[in-house]
Design a protein that fits this description.
293 residues, alpha/beta
Length: 293
Amino acid sequence: MTRVSSTARAAVIVTAVVAALLGSAYVLGRSLVPDQTQRHATGVTTEGDGPHYADQTPEEPSTGTPAGIPTAGQSAGPSEAGQDGSGQSASGDKLFGAHTETGNARLALTFDDGPDPRYTPQVLAILREYDVKATFCVVGENAQDHPDLIQAIVAGGHTLCNHSWHHDVSLGNKSADQIRADLVRTNEAIRSAVPDAPIVWYRQPGGAWTYPVVSVSQQLGMTPLHWSVDPSDWQAPGASKIAATVLAQAEPGAVVLMHDAGGDRQGTVDALRRILPQLSARYELEALPTDPT
């Protein structure tokens, strides 16, 4: 009985010792293995933790903003031709000096994207009815297709403005040589219809001005032309809304932007009949001069 008890006790002791040794080994082994749970929970690895795969966007550690995306106050990209990538000059001028006013108390009506055989003749007829002169910013390919309308614009005493060859909003982001070729081609199409007509204004499609497009237009003898009143008639909001916006925002020296092409412009034509009587009573309306200063 004593021998059996001693043997049982020895077995218990041996089992306990083995269990203790195994437990210690397990704890020691765990301490040597990195904790994977926390890293995968955050989705952020520290340097040396592992590779960043091609479909990952690492975060900036201080802001949580994806790397390469600018935070407030940071530049959006490298500078090009004097720009900071944000569409502004160093002085913060998004227009790079493009004119937004007539420079006097007179108000100027401007019509973009034509000429169009459906709407340009209607606009010309209404302007003639009220003895108002305006400025037409024409697209080169439209001028080429409708030289008779370019001739009618000039014959009506209106002035012309280069509006690029095919209304390329991104033109200002191209090289100076590409910009120059586009503007020269447009001027040539206009002058093939009206050889002696001055073309002293340039309007960038979409108002997407850049330093290169302003510089090239000036080198070609054209003054960059923006606007100060925009009824967004290109969105076809209806004649009433177009007229209300123009009449509410018009002021001495304003340059009003409207469209006689590029879509359904009947709303603009109808609005013009409502606008002209009131504008003519309040302001002297002029075509932009052919000798801008």
